[in-house]
User: Fold these one by one.
Assistant:
Number 1:
Amino acid sequence: MGDLRTFPRLVIGGMSGSSGKTIVSLGLMHLLRRAGVEVRAFKKGPDYIDAAWLAWASSHTARNLDTFLMGPERVVESFIHHATSSGMNVIEGNRGLFDGYDAAGTHSTAALARCLSAPVLLVVNASKVTRTAAAFVLGCQKLDLSLAIRGVILNNVSGERHRDVTRDAIESACGIPVVGCLPQVKSGLLPERHLGLVPPQEHFTTEKLGQDLLQLVEGRLDVDATLSIGRDAPPLPWIQEPSPTPPTTSTVTIGYLKDAAFTFYYPDNLETLEQSGASLVPVSALDATALPENLQALYIGGGFPETHARALAGNTPFLQSLRNAALRGLPIYAECGGLILLARNLLWKDIRYPMAAVFPFDVGVCDSPQGHGYSELRVVAPNPFFPTGITLRGHEFHYSRIVPCAETISTACLVERGTGCFDKREFVMTNNVVATYTHMHAVGTPEWAAGMVNAARSFAPPRDSRN
């Protein structure tokens, strides 16, 4: 079978969304780190914000793992290449344990746990139940006998008697230990807004939050039992990480917007660009007055431009610089929040905020999601970044939508799953600019980084060959 290596690991699963998985994961990592255990964190699924919080709690870059976006083999490779073999790897699930792509639970947290041969700690909301909680756990055990549910953490426990009765019922009926019992917590411990949690970059009391999390879990989570379960995970076959291939031509310079308004970047995407021959330059749309003149391409990720709309709209010199760059043919790839920045206006809460006007349409922010879930796109028209004929996988989660306009908007993709920009179309285009509501992961879509770098090389000759 080849070289087997040990990677202690735990999947934190839940009975549903909002069951307490994130609080448990963050609190557990604080306890482990205080005990001197090195921690690496992973997030099941495409969520940027939860991954940012996991990175904060583990003090290391957190990676997203998703079998739909990346495929099972690449999920295992990514985990092995970023996991710790001596400490503990904490993988936070999403939604309910078996909730996935379809009724069979394809691409669920359970599927990821099986893919990684990882034991599961099941977070159960114990509010207003006792023995019924045992039925929840037993049902999860019986639904998939191949899944290693090794322990339970109760959340929202109201008192000692509630804790004892519920714990005893689960342990006697299910044959697995309850390794944690957490009380009800005050709302707002982790503040939320329309896309989920507020990112840690905007949370100005993270030090106090860390103390609050420790106070919540200390004496209520059995660290030794948790470590024992994680360390019992079977070894995995080692997969040699390929050595980076030196670029065959000179480095290209690619900018990316990085500030409080634009934070949604998978670390793997930025790293893959660098491995493909890009020198990355972070630029703030809030503070810079212009794009750097030496850029050969620009990547605009998602984020919360709507909550920074006034500041963005007020930075007229930068918006003009962005519009001029688009007009002169700079390759620009924009995702979700980046699409908003390239619109003519952002409409939010009855206020119109001027944007870069690269595209002739407005974008309005709505009160409910306009697109949410996995997406599949078929590239049907020539564009700066992808060859025609291929299928791309990604995800979308946006409250905004493109407001219909009289102008004809060119698109490059048909939406085969998901919502897209409008009328089951995706990749709105003008000049060398592509904007999309779909986020892609470079590990599962290697064409993305290659397309960005190739477009940059086509725009201008390498710097070392210029006169």
Number 2:
Amino acid sequence: MNDKDQYIEKAKAQLDQWAAEIDKLKAKADEAEADAKIQYQQQIEELRRKRDEAQEQLDEMQAASDEAWKDMRSGFDRAWDNLRAAFDRAMSRFR
């Protein structure tokens, strides 16, 4: 397995983990009071949007040639950092 494949597999695993975390937040939102439910839903939508953006970039990287993916990686890393920060904020807010 080359660097590109390893990177993509690791990223896919993290995206799957974050999808599971979004599902947990959704379950909490479903049980929350009205005011808290709105906050949960807003946060969940932001997380889903960021996750979808990261998934799109990952799909593009996967389809790219071995040379092109190296250039794309820095953009994906930035999106990844934004997503990680959003997850950290959301999880700390709703614990």
Number 3:
Amino acid sequence: MEYIVKTVDSINFDKVNIANIDKFVWGTAYTPKTYAKLIYVKNKGLALRITCEEKNPKAVYTKFYEPVYKDSCVEMFVTFDGVSYMNIEMNSNGATLIGFGSSRHGRTHIDQLIPIPEVKAEKSENTWNAEIFLPEADILKLYPDFKFESGARFKGNFYKCGDETEIEHYGMWSPVGTEKPDFHRPEYFGDFIIE
């Protein structure tokens, strides 16, 4: 899987490539239309918006580092060095869980390394979305060898889940080939390429 990250001068998600989160696996019967848009704001950072066409999303959690994956949740996992990755998980309340590390276990809360990125969430009758901005300077604190330039490549995946929703579900952009639910599998990440 490959996604072209559009370079822009300011945050604007119009005319941006869509990454459809449409591979629902592990027995999932509930498949809400969900898609991500990721842009590089030149010399500023990455902006992400994930939209889900879902009525009344479950949204219990309201604070940083609560288990938002149990709610109706959208996620991006991303690495800029192929070793350590960030898991960015957001619900429709704008609550987020962000960890950093090289595997599912022993992850560091992101606020121990960089400031917590701001998340904005919006709900309407049939749709909700979550947006997050990752400042370039903060990304470079975690990945000092990465260069934000045209043609630069990094890896990641977009997800939709709801571990404790009325109908448990797991969707992804880049297919994960495991028998049981497990998003912490960087070997299945797709390619992100800066335009």
Number 4:
Amino acid sequence: MNLPEKVTLIEVGPRDGFQFEKKIIPTELKLRIINGLLDAGIRSIQVTSFVNPAVVPQMCDAEELIKLLPENKDAAFSCLVLNERGLHRAQKAGMKNVEISVSASDTHSRKNTGMPHETAFKSAQNMIETAKSYKMHIRAGIQCAFGCAYEGSIPADRVIAIAGKFADSGADMIAVSDTTGMADPLSVRMLIEKLRAVTNLPVVLHLHDTRGLGLANVLAGLESGITHFDTALAGMGGCPFVPGAAGNVSTEDTAHMMESMHIKTGVDIRKVAACSLELEAFFEKKFPGKIHHLYSCNKEV
């Protein structure tokens, strides 16, 4: 089995995980969690999104949070932007790393953004051009890359075409997202193989554990040469189309699996688990990750 020696885990909990929670998280708690993740060795964190606070109240403190982030030359803080207004807010707040994404599903795009895919992609291209003028590092995301709750299976060639156009537009990195948790190890391998044929850009896998295949899909990604994975502490997050579904693949679970396979992550799992347990205490509920629960029982992992 040909596996990488080390990988980068990109922590998306403070954005993709927090946004699903109705109970508003105080800015100081968000900051404490981010600092805890940094202390745990995580060096790439998606901290917020610049979106309409009336639609996503959890992100209403984006500018305030950015101002309070610690100065850390080794850390890359990033954010999600959905339109030119959000991009301008991010630039004004001093963000250097942004994610701009579109859906591979036309139906999902219409329901999520009010725009058909072609219109949404043109908007994304314009945003990439603007972000380049701001000297930002641009991660281009493809939602519903492995399937859509409305359309079912998404043709891999459609995803590949989008990735190619993103690369031609000047993106620095491509992220393929299993938005609905419909991926399986075979589809992961097949898509990555096709992606490698059209772009040399770094590829990030954003996987969900909606159907219990999260870590199996991570392994398929590793076997295919992927070295960048989005994860969320405690497995926070979810799927808006599958009520009650598990969220993103857990940071602790993913790091544990990789370290047990002698793949270096640089992550102190116990310290990430401490952050997860603090959030569980705040929300008064359990999140779906596995490994952090073992630490709560003071068991050796």
